[in-house]
Design a protein that fits this description.
Number of strands: 11
Distance between the termini: 37 Å
Helix content: 25-40%
Structural class: alpha/beta
Strand order of the largest sheet: 3-2-1-4-5-6-9-10-11
Radius of gyration: 22 Å
Strand content: 15-25%
Number of helices: 8
InterPro entries: RibonucZ/Hydroxyglut_hydro
Order of helices and strands: HHHHEEEHEEHEEEEHEEH
Shape: globular
Number of domains: 2
Length: 286
């Protein structure tokens, strides 16, 4: 797979190539993989914008490839004589793998957000900026993994303004009558996630967003990195309102005693298994 700068003719420009913004949003990645089309999409797009590598870039790419045991460095392609036709081929490949609610597929790995764009179940659209969240973070990948009744949503570092768009799109992304089973809180429950501090609202306020299991990762560093208190409060309110369970990995969140809630699992903490039976029974349901 060729990863080189998308260049428009500058003589000595070469580096890492990025595809068009949001081009994978709405694409069923499992279908794309099963069709054997992943490499073709990247190769063809690179050929639309190919530029030769200068010697410095060639050496850097070679060193990188050796360091990580990758195949390479890749060879420069000649630009396609008809890039418009090549782009049409790429779009046709992606469109064949785009999500359709009535497709009847039993399993999906759907890209719901990519490079500051999200997918609402029908079309791809840009996400609004989030104060305090860098463009690099807003470009994180959001994935919805589904197999029959089971579904798992992870939204990277989209920030609340991006997350809420995906949450509101769930009726278009899940089979009729199904609800989200697992939601992975992003960015270790940072203040940019889950909660709108100005409107005092949260993702869990949305009618379509009622996950049965909530996961929050705290990493494994020596100094605890707790979720933002507002994020923790939103999760606890969701537990009080819905028959769901929560898993906090590594440590209990700041200011929260796990013994106070029988539907919380806090790995590595005192009474860590308090909510394990409800957690296990929820999984068995699916």
């Amino acid at each position: 797979m060729d990863t080189r700068q998308n260049s428009t003719g500058a003589k000595n420009v070469a580096g890492v190539w990025y595809p068009p913004q949001g081009f994978l949003a709405g694409v069923g990645l499992y279908r794309l993989f099963c069709d054997g089309s992943v490499d073709d999409v990247f190769r063809l797009d690179n050929e639309c914008h190919a530029c030769p590598l200068n010697q410095d870039a060639h050496n850097e790419l070679l060193a990188h490839s050796r360091r990580y045991g990758l195949v390479g460095p890749v060879q420069a392609h000649d630009a396609r004589a008809d890039p418009a036709a090549t782009r049409t081929r790429i779009e046709a490949t992606l469109n064949a793998c785009r999500y359709h609610k009535d497709s009847g597929r039993a399993a999906e790995v759907l890209c719901v957000a990519f490079q500051e764009h999200f997918f609402n179940g029908k079309t791809r659209a840009p996400m609004p900026p989030v104060s305090g969240v860098s463009e690099a973070n807003r470009g994180s990948v959001g994935l919805l993994i589904r197999a029959d009744k089971f579904s798992f949503l992870a939204m990277g570092d989209l920030g609340y303004n991006g997350e809420i768009l995906v949450a509101r799109s769930l009726p278009n992304l899940l089979p009729s009558g199904y609800q989200l089973v697992v939601h992975k809180i992003n960015h270790q429950g940072s203040k940019h996630s889950t909660v709108d501090h100005t409107a005092r609202a949260s993702l869990f306020s949305e009618t379509a967003f009622k996950p049965c299991i909530v996961l929050t990762s705290h990493r494994l560093q020596a100094k605890p990195e707790h979720p933002d208190p507002a994020v923790t409060s939103a999760i606890m309110r969701h537990l009080d309102a819905e028959p769901c369970v929560a898993l906090f990995s590594n440590r209990a969140p700041m200011g929260f005693a796990p013994a106070n809630h029988t539907r919380v699992v806090t790995t590595g903490a005192h009474d860590a298994n308090l909510g394990l039976d409800p957690f296990r029974s929820k999984l068995v349901d699916y």
